Amino acid sequence: MSAQDDLCWLSALELAAQIRAKKISPVEVVDAVLARIERVNPTLNAFCTLTADEARDAAQAAEVSVMTGEELGPLHGVPVSIKDLLFTRRLLTTGGSRLFAEHVPEEDAVSVERLKGAGAIILGKTNTAEFGHKAVTDNPLFGITRNPWSTSLTPGGSSGGSAAAVAAGMGPLALGTDDGGSIRIPASFCGIYGLKPSFGRVPRGAGFPGWETLSHTGPMTRTVRDAALVLDALAGPDDRDRFSLQAEAGPSFLESCEGGLAGLSVAWSADLGHAIVDPEVAEICAKAAEDFEALGCHVEVVTPGWDNPEEIFRAIAPAEIYSAWGDRLEDGADLLDRSLVALLKYGEGITARQYLAATARRQEFWTEVQRFLARFDLLITPTVAVPAFPVARPAVKEIDGRPVSPLGWIPFCFPFNLTGQPAASVPVGFTSAGLPVGLQIVGRRFADRTVLAASAAFEAAHPWAARRPPVG
Prior knowledge:
Blueprint: H1 3-8, H2 12-20, H3 26-44, E1 47-50, H4 52-67, E2 79-83, H5 110-117, E3 121-126, E4 138-139, E5 143-144, H6 160-167, E6 173-178, H7 184-190, E7 193-196, E8 216-221, H8 224-234, H9 253-256, E9 265-268, H10 279-293, E10 298-301, H11 310-325, H12 328-332, H13 338-348, H14 352-373, E11 378-382, E12 398-399, E13 402-403, H15 415-419, E14 423-430, E15 436-443, H16 448-461
Parallel strand pairs: 2-3, 2-6, 9-10, 9-11
Antiparallel strand pairs: 1-3, 4-5, 6-8, 7-8, 7-14, 11-15, 12-13, 14-15
């Protein structure tokens, strides 16, 4: 491996420190990452829009700032990719849709604006399912994104381009969005760290409409501390998002990674009482749950006792996306992904009464979850019920020989979009076929720091970042 390629695998923290110390140049870093993208992206299709010239210009400007002694942001000179659902000023932003094939926003999403303010350099946009509507990554505009561990398989979705880019060394940082697991699912399938922060922790807007009450923006990285570093740049209130949370007193998210697990009470559930899980995934995650005990916390095997909230989610999510895009069924259905058309038609059939009834049941579900977590600091589960599967499939209909419901392969993810709690996926091992498996760490309301501390403690005991996929 060349010295240039080595730069592609450094963490964002290492890159930022070495750039600040003038040991490496932002130009060197961006050139190295762009060279790797040129080599690897044709195989994976992780990037749908690459802004190589603009990234090189930004790197040169970043180098001047270093050499002239200007004040540098915490991500100064560090490359980042942005999911194509998030608005980027004067940069093609399609949402993975032919309806927006030439759409160039005039303003940044708050998260993008804040990354730029922290000194990060945008490499381009990563591929997504159309408007993030499904948990695999392909769309009629840019095609299929592939998993770097096995290119015949999906990276998951809808932030699959972001996950594949980070896993394959095409930049240390990516921004994803999560409406029902869209950060955590691809993080699990691609063997990286993905954090869905508390709802409102990272403000939204400007952006495409849809899923206003379910959507979270968060970091996808190879290390936990890189995610914390990004969250420090992203978090905090913004009046453009009425749901955005106030900043909290206390240590930075990066500092909170030192917190450890000593004395914490952790609940482990293999199936939440109702899920069907691939036996190999179940075994790997159960072993990881045992490993938590060795980190100084008390782990209790539990069945939470709440009902499967799938019906609640399958009323709220389709109704909200139909509200955003249903008017395109008449004049644009032939341009849309067929699975999105089916989802919109399903949403069209949900009445206002059904939607409001589901909203009331969502509140009841939150009450059950909150009462359960009053007894525990954290809940750990598998992230996804299966390992990655072939790209041609939109979902999994059967696990371990038993049929599952439409969301039955992601039973651990979408519940925590309904509740808005922080949740992360940490890599915990590989199947016999060499495919990554993730463990989900769910915190109490607003307890992002505890989730990061637990993630960092597990990473320190069982590091994963050095293992690289065979692609490229």
